Amino acid sequence: MADIASIDSLDAAGKKVLVRVDFNAPVDGEGNVTDDTRLRAALPTINKLINDGAKVILASHRGRPAGTGYEEAFSLGPIARRLQELLGRDIVLTRDLIGPNVAEVVDAMGNGDVVLLENIRFDKREKKNDPEFARALADLADVYVNDAFGTAHRAHASTAGVAEYLPSYAGYLLQKEVATLTGMLDNPRRPFVAILGGSKVSDKIKVIDALMDKADVLIIGGGMCFTFLLAQGYSVGTSLKEDDWVERAGQMIQKAADKGVKLLLPVDVVVADRFAEDAETATVSVDAIPDDMMGLDIGPDTAAIYAEAIGGAATVFWNGPMGVFEMKPFEAGTLAVANAVAENQDADTIIGGGDSVAAVNKFNLADAMTFISTGGGASMELVQGEALPGVEALRVTAA
After folding, report:
1. Are residues 213 and 326 in the same domain?
2. 156/11 same-domain check
3. How far apart are the two ends of the chain, measured CA to CA in Å?
4. Which of 105, 141, 305, 341 is deepest in the core (most CB within 10 A)?
5. Domain-embedded: residue 242
6. Which of 17, 38, 35, 24 has its CA nearest to residue 120?
7. φ, ψ for residue 376, nearest 5 deg
8. How far is the C-alpha of 386 from the C-alpha of 262, rounded, in Å?
């Protein structure tokens, strides 16, 4: 990111700094943030600006509001309360996003004060990257900082549009995410083992294809493994599958063979008679999946094979669970993989956002990982070789 300005080069004293953060965190029915990983990840940038005497204006989204105004269910109120605890200072949460009421709040700020704008997606113009909305946001500040890697793959008003109107900088989290993920791809220590899970081949095909060109071993789990098993000629019962993607999965199997990439697919699976915590289950070989049952996790033999490969890696990249780990009967495969990654302390271990982060946190293994990405979609697009609009917008303004 040599061609993008870092906040280290920003003289922030007395300046109004609009910071796009990713505070899209889960909140329970009592209004408590249940996972503050993303809030904590933004603290280095926020504290740097506070200590430098900036007037810090934070912008974030949470959930998927309709975009027609305030919705209590998606308010950043719980986020503001947790952020106050983390920062040890008062946070002012605005009701409006732009306009005279917000401008009045911002004008009243002292150096080191922090204001959090309400959910930026309460205005539908945010997702449309509406120039008028972006300009109105920019009018609140003197400088723009993007530290929201989790939304860097979105060309929205607060992630890309604002950068056209203000001097723009990358925050510490954004810099670290991009440097870590591109470094893994450009110059990994080998053997490089990539682990991919999730529901659908169609969602991950570009990532699979890209990692085939980089990895030494590619491990497949989750619901998408059944489309690969179909491509190998197995019957998968009522398991999740994509018939339209069987041929493409077969091509990936062939590509791995042609490139000398070791592609690991399940040899046994945990099946159930229905998708439920109390379902009847069995562990079967992949050539013996009953016609009336569905696979919901990799089996113990598969988990052992995967763990052995992970244990021999020098670089590990993991995105996507091995099964329905949220349900106790189907968590063993994901737990085995998580333990194997955590136990390989000689490797660079990178968790690529999304459900993998949730799994690592559930099993209390986060501290054993080298790096945990805050952006599932953004990290996947970066791995695929896609340009991220939120990063590219900084590159343009810093040129």
Report:
1. yes
2. yes
3. 12
4. 341
5. yes
6. 24
7. -65, -60
8. 25
Domain membership of residue 340 (yes or no) is yes
SS3 19: strand
Reading the block at residue 127, the tokens are 């997702």
For residues 168 and 137, what is the distance between their CA atoms, to the nearest angstrom? 13
Note the residue count of the chain.
399
Show the domain range for 103: 7-172+388-398
pLDDT tens figures, 73-95 = 999 999 999 999 999 999 999 99
11-20, 64-73, 249-258, 367-376, range with the lowest pLDDT? 367-376
- CATH number where 290 lies: 3.40.50.1260
Say yes or no: 163 and 199 in one domain: no
Residues 157 and 201 both lie in one domain: no
295 and 321 share one domain: yes
**Backbone φ/ψ region at 170: left (φ over 0), alpha (ψ -120 to 50), beta:** beta
Q: Are residues 211 and 246 both part of a single domain?
A: yes
Distance between CA atoms of residues 249 and 200, nearest Å: 11
Number of structural domains in the chain: 2
Helix-helix angle 332-343:355-362, to 10 degrees: 80
Q: In this structure, are residues 72 and 93 in contact, taking their beta carbons and an 8 Å threshold?
A: no
Which of helix, strand or coil describes residue 113? coil
**Amino acid occupying residue 257:** A
Give yes or no: residues 167 and 197 share one domain. no
Residue that has been written with the tokens 């929205």 in this structure:
156
Residue 278 included in any domain: yes
Q: CB–CB of 190/314 below 8 Å?
A: yes
In a domain, 250, yes or no: yes
Q: Are 290 and 237 in contact (CB under 8 A)?
A: yes
Give the neighbor-by-neighbor strand order of the sheet with 262-264: 262-264, 217-220, 192-196, 315-319, 348-351, 371-372
Q: What is the pTM of this model?
A: 0.87
Burial class (CB in 10 A: 0-12, 13-18, 19+), 37: middle
List C-alpha distances in Å: 81 to 37, 78, 91, 115: 15, 5, 8, 12
pLDDT (0 to 100) of residue 2: 60
Between CA 151 and CA 156 the distance in angstroms is: 9
Active site residues: 38, 200, 354, 377
